[in-house]
Amino acid sequence: MLQALMNMISLCWKPFGGQDGGERFDSVSVIGSHSGGGGIEGRDGLLWSRDMGKCAAGDFSMAVVQANQVLEDQSQIESGPFGTFIGVYDGHGGPDAARYVCENLYRHFQAIAAETEGVVTTDTIQRAFRETEEGFTALVSRLWSTRPSIATVGSCCLVGVIFQRTLFIANLGDSRVVLGKKVGNTGGIAAIQLSTEHNANIEAVRQELKELHPNDPQIVVLKHGVWRVKGIIQVSRSIGDVYLKYSQYNREPINEKFRLPEPMNMPILTAVPTIISHQLHRDDSFLIFASDGLWEHLTNEKAVDIVHSHPQAGSAKRLVKAALQEAARKREMRYSDLCKIDKKVRRHFHDDITVIVLFLNHDLISRGFVRDH
């Protein structure tokens, strides 16, 4: 049983040092596919956590809880000459797209940033997303004859990049990053959502889809109280989901529920992220990056208050547990009983949840990350 649990997730801890050898930073990738989790600090059933680690922008706390048969959330935090890279990838239809993104998006980002000697711009991030989407689409093409179902797998992608004193946030789908910002000298903290979400339950997203597809009265459909694109999927942007982007993949032998009744004349979903830049201020205390499984149960304000009101160590695990307690309360059951429910069945109560809390160290950010020579 223990080995089966360990096989579900791997955390790879790679120390990353500055030029003077004084700072040692952890590079973490949670790809959920291989055995050997030597860096796991905490494990409680289907919940894994790292209470505290270090990166080029400060300290971080990380936690993941599994609900699906196979973990579909993937994530990473990396330090490099540019600064810090955080990624949360919420897969759907299977883990393949999220794993692909976790293994390739940062690699593309590094290569593109190297072309400009480590300078990061909005275009750097856009290109990394584009190359990742193109790579996954090529993978679907190669596997179409032997494994066509991969055409129906996709992933939301939430990325944060801290370069010098600028925070870039890029998002596809409905994962979210929330900033905890100090309110003057009051001791209070404000919750500020930085990411833009692409979910058909948001009116502005439905309006965008209707404007892009004016001749399609079924571009968004309300089913069982939930708005869905073409009555199938909630998110309007993702990596993968090529069956809703290219007509050659929207046909047999993929499952009938994914096949559209009319020809697809243009892509329905897009992989172009919304990117914002935020100049970091010393009142900016911490960032919460999380897949939508967390936000389904906690408001921005509640999440920020939980982090602010407790010690930094274990913050991500504390947020995950608060979400699970709320999920249990909604189903009129005890948290302890929810934790006894096995994966797959657990998905009826909550989603896979990934949380990374980054506590900003402004002195470290101001000094910058010194490139090795």
UniProtKB/TrEMBL annotation:
EC id: 3.1.3.16
Stored Gene3D superfamilies: PPM-type phosphatase domain
Alphabetical keyword list: Hydrolase, Magnesium, Manganese, Metal-binding, Protein phosphatase
Entry keyword Magnesium: yes
Catalytic activity: O-phospho-L-threonyl-[protein] + H2O = L-threonyl-[protein] + phosphate; O-phospho-L-seryl-[protein] + H2O = L-seryl-[protein] + phosphate
Listed cofactors: Mn(2+); Mg(2+)
Aminoacyl-tRNA synthetase recorded as keyword: no
Domain PPM-type phosphatase: 59-360
Classification via InterPro entries: PP2C, PP2C_BS, PPM-type-like_dom_sf, PPM-type_phosphatase-like_dom
SUPFAM superfamilies: PP2C-like (SSF81606)
Enzyme class: hydrolase
UniProt-recorded Gene Ontology molecular function terms: metal ion binding; protein serine/threonine phosphatase activity
Family, per entry: Belongs to the PP2C family.
Protein name per UniProt: protein-serine/threonine phosphatase
Organism of origin: Juglans regia
